[in-house]
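User: Sorry, folds how?
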Amino acid sequence: MYLGAHTHIYERQYPYYKGAVMSVEGPYHNIDSMVSIVEGVAGNEKDIVEAAYPLKSYTAKATFNETGFGILTVWNQTHLQYQHFSTKGGTHVADNVLMTKYQSVQRSLRTYLMDK
């Protein structure tokens, strides 16, 4: 997962790798692709993007013209969850994605521990 910010919007992109996009909704289980999240809507209304710009085919979810925040929860070594909360009209979950990774994470952890 890549987590970044800048554009004063919230945007989550579908998993992608070498130009190939996995347009899947719901949890991402054992994917070999990267999920990008841009969490650029701080709690301050200053400099918020007032209008939507054209979204790309790889955009899974985006919000414009609203404030908010995100929470990344690391449940354990195989499960991550990202939630984006909008504060427009009261705080509510605007996006929620669960990502799981089993075999290669466990292999990587074993390799890391053996190298220590």
In short: The longest strand covers residues 92-100.
